[in-house]
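Amino acid chain
________________
===
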Amino acid sequence: MMNRQSHPIFIGDTAQKPIEQDVKGEYVSMLGEPFYKIKNYDGMPSFFMSIVSGSDHWLFISSTGGLSAGRGSAEQSLFPYYTEDKLAENSENTGNKSILLVTRGERTSLWEPFSERYRGQYQIERNIYKNVLGTVLVFEEINHSLKLNYRYAWRTSDIYGFVKTTWLSNIGESTCQVELVDGIQNILPANVTSLMQNTFSPLLDAYKRSELNLETGLAIFALNSTLTDLAEPSESLLATVLMQLGLEPTGYLLSSSQLDSFRAGMGVTTETEVRGKRGAYFVHAVLDLAPAEERAWHLVADVSKDAAAIVSLSKKLRGNRAELSDAIECDIALNNLNLEKIVASADGLQVSSDGLVTAHHFANVMFNVMRGGIFFDQYKLHTENFIEFVSTHNRAVLDENAAAFAKLPPEMNILELHAWADASGCADLIRLSYIYLPLSFSRRHGDPSRPWNRFAIDIKKQDGSLKQGYEGNWRDIFQNWEALAYSYPEYIEGMICTFLNATTVDGYNPYRITQNGSIGKFQSLKIPGRILAIGATIKLSICKS
């Protein structure tokens, strides 16, 4: 068989550049914190990742760049919530897209970072970086032929949503001019269910309406109405919003329709309104880059915003945009800090000479807490939350002991609660005091690689304050509480009581468990070994219904 490796393959007059297969992993420092870098990640088979947040964001992304993201659940998506295989294949039409016309001297070259359209045309190096917290993912493509470095990162802000930050650097020895369109594609409007995304997508496209405020650059993606075939008013009053900071734009695009024209050097015409097409948001700009000069900008997106929120954001864009950019960076840092505090409260921070072991421990504790929840105020509880819990589980107990409940202080220690309930002599109140676990940050588990699990991150009240509760599959919840019990041993009795209270006499357990009760059909009992070992030394008579 003929060995072709020694003979270059041409497309037209261009010899194809080989893909670098020397994949290497190492820790590096960037953006002021440690990141794990995979050099030449495109030499590996594609892999799937998640970006985490100290708030209700979710973001699942393939190493190809295809992704889905949103807040709370798949019903509030920024990009369509497809299964993992489809996300990996959709990198050319969903998420980040940048097209650059690079001029050095008399020659203008077309470059489309991370695209497979021009694979092998340039000598490139692709690297990927993820910080130890798991809150930032950076893609980097270095074009050694054009002497440019293009990087973009996905990050999250509780106030502003999802932030795509881009850096473009001139690594050559001469000045160059870059005309670019940079943005994101396949943006969903608000009020789009996962059923619409996957089953009624052609009809959904017909209802889409994208608008641009030319003065501020703020784009609004909404539905003309909710999808219905009934002769009745059906307004869709929420929208997805996008804005950009850091570039001096010469134009904007709200769809991908003109990208081929730009690739051909024919320019673009600003779009202020687009109907019946998939949403996109592109900024058209021209940059002059001196040697070693770097330019950075943000694209910021959020979902399910009402009219008041959009007006507020417009006012901010009319003000000092540099201050707004700083505010976004501060909120990103605060969101990361909140997550770090949550993991720290479950003993997830470790000091070790082995950075990989330390990062692995942090990730284990973080995902454990995300499923099972965390006791945000340690052993302190808020009485109003306990009263709400009792009202949900046994209203009669609340009514019969109204005088005793009225005397409770606004806050108390969990051990004080148990002692108060024991003193009442009411068996039902004692039981409820023990199965009350003031957990938060728990979410129902699932992701695009497990399409049978529908996730939900229900951790906020309508006013934005922290919501108490937990939810998850029976096995997942108790497995995660096993580990959490080492950090909060005073809650062990409560965990065991909750476990037994949800178990039938003949040894069956529910499919899913929440703070408000069990959900789904019962199945044969699978008891976590360590929980029973701990429980063997504890009196369980109080757990009887």
Summary: The CA atoms of residues 396 and 402 lie 10 Å apart. Confidence is low (pLDDT under 50) at residues 524-545.
